[in-house]
Specification:
By secondary structure, the protein is of the alpha/beta class. 42% of the residues lie in helices and 20% in strands. The chain has 14 helices and 12 strands. The strands form 2 sheets. Strands 1, 2, 3, 4, 5, 6 and 12 form a 7-stranded mixed beta sheet that branches. A 5-stranded mixed beta sheet has the order 9-8-10-7-11, with helices on both faces. β2 and β3 form a beta hairpin. α2 packs across α10 and α11 packs across α12. The longest helix has 20 residues. The chain is globular and about 60 Å long. The protein starts with a helix and ends in a 6-residue tail after the last helix. The N terminus is likely disordered.
Length: 339
C-alpha cells in the first residue's frame, strides 16, 4: 500500500502546520496524479482524494467499485489518502498533491481566507453526530460545571465551534477552563485514561470511546446547538483541466449514496471494511448522515452559519461569504439535484 506520509510531513513542516496538527497519512490502493503513462504506454488521469475516517462516502464508493465503473473506459484511477485533520488536507490541495478533499468546514474556510486555490463543489454529509463527553468521576452535570476542568477539542477543526458554544451556554469563556488542544485520536486516549475531564469530539471517535470504557458519558450532543455540513472541495487547476472527470467523480459518489439508502446495514459493513473500522463505530454516524452530494439552499446557509460561528469565536481571522466559493455546476452537469 502506497503512503504519502514522508512527502506530506516535509511539506507540512515547511508550512508550519506539522507541529500543530499531525497528519497520519495512509494511502489506499490505486496510483498517481494528473497525467502519467501506464505500463501499456497509454495516457491516463488519476484523481488523488484526501479523506478522514469520518468521511464515509468515498470509502463506500470505492468498496462498491463505483469509481472503477465510472472511469474504467477512460483509464482513470482514484486514490484515497487518509489524513487525521483538515488543515494538512488544505495544504495538500493547495500544493497540487491532492485533487479532491472531504473535510470539515472550519479548515475549508480558513484556507479560503488565506488564499486557498480550491472551490467547494458539493457536500458529503450533513449531521449532528458530535458530542461533549465527560468523565463520570469529574462530576460534570451541566455546562456550568465545566469551570476549572480540563476541556479538550481539536483546535482548528469543525468541532471547535461546538466546544465554544457549550462554554457560552454555560456562561463560561476559554479562560474559565483548562482549554486543551488535542487531536481526535489523542482525545480518545486521554479521556479514557483520565488525563482530561471533558472533550468535544466526533464520530466515529464517540462510539470508540464509549465502547472502550464505562467511565465516560455523553453530557450533550450537537442536536439543537449546531448542524454540520461537510464540504467536498477540489483544486482550481484540477477543475479547470478536468471538468467532466469532476462531474463523473461526483456522480459515482452520489450513486453510492443512493445505493446506501436501501442497503444501510451492508453499507455500514462495506465502509467499516474499507476504512479499517468496527461496524459499531460506523453505524451511529452513518445512520445520522445525509450523504447526498447536492447542496440545498438551507445547507449552503448551514455552511455560512458555520463560518459565522467560527469567526465569532475567533477561529477565523476574517469573515467570509461562503457562496462566493461554491460552484454547483459540476453537480448540475452530472444531473445531481436536490430531491
Amino acid at each position: 500500500m502506497r503512503t504519502g506520509e514522508d512527502k506530506f510531513r516535509k511539506r507540512l513542516k515547511k508550512a508550519g502546520v506539522f507541529a500543530a496538527v499531525t497528519a497520519l497519512l495512509v494511502s489506499s490502493s490505486l496510483t498517481v496524479q494528473a497525467k502519467e503513462q501506464d505500463t501499456a504506454g497509454e495516457e491516463k488521469t488519476t484523481i488523488h482524494v484526501a479523506v478522514q475516517k469520518s468521511t464515509y462516502s468515498p470509502y463506500l464508493t470505492k468498496a462498491l467499485g463505483y469509481f472503477d465503473d465510472a472511469f474504467s473506459t477512460e483509464g482513470t484511477t482514484v486514490e484515497l489518502t487518509e489524513f487525521s485533520q483538515g488543515a494538512p488536507m488544505v495544504e495538500a490541495v493547495n500544493s497540487g498533491d491532492i485533487d479532491v478533499a472531504f473535510l470539515g468546514d472550519v479548515p475549508t474556510f480558513a484556507g479560503l481566507i488565506n488564499g486557498g486555490e480550491y472551490t467547494i463543489i458539493g457536500k458529503y454529509s450533513e449531521d449532528t453526530a458530535k458530542a461533549l463527553l465527560v468523565r463520570k468521576d469529574a462530576d460534570i452535570k451541566s455546562f456550568e460545571d465545566l469551570k476549572g476542568h480540563t476541556y479538550a477539542t481539536a483546535f482548528g477543526s469543525n468541532v471547535q465551534p461546538l466546544a465554544e458554544i457549550y462554554l457560552e451556554k454555560g456562561g463560561l469563556t476559554d479562560a474559565d477552563v483548562q482549554y486543551t488542544n488535542l487531536s481526535f485520536g489523542d482525545i480518545n486516549t486521554s479521556i479514557v485514561n483520565g488525563d482530561i475531564d471533558a472533550a468535544v469530539t466526533n464520530e466515529p471517535n464517540i462510539s470508540k470511546i464509549l465502547s472502550t470504557t464505562d467511565d465516560v458519558e455523553v453530557l450533550a450532543t450537537a442536536d439543537g446547538y449546531k448542524t454540520f455540513v461537510g464540504p467536498i472541495i477540489a483544486g482550481n487547476d484540477f477543475l479547470k483541466n478536468y471538468p467532466e472527470t469532476t462531474s463523473e467523480f461526483l456522480s459515482a459518489i452520489q450513486k453510492a449514496a443512493d445505493w446506501s439508502k436501501e442497503n444501510k446495514e451492508e453499507a455500514v459493513e462495506k465502509i467499516a471494511g474499507e476504512a479499517g473500522l468496527e461496524t459499531t463505530d460506523v453505524k451511529t454516524l452513518f445512520e445520522q448522515q445525509d450523504n447526498n452530494t447536492y447542496l440545498t439552499d438551507e445547507q449552503i446557509q448551514g455552511l455560512q452559519q458555520g463560518a459565522d460561528d467560527a469567526y465569532k469565536y475567533g477561529l477565523l481571522k476574517s469573515e467570509i461569504s461562503v457562496k462566493d466559493y461554491i460552484d454547483t455546476s459540476y453537480l448540475e452537469a452530472a444531473g445531481i439535484t436536490a430531491e
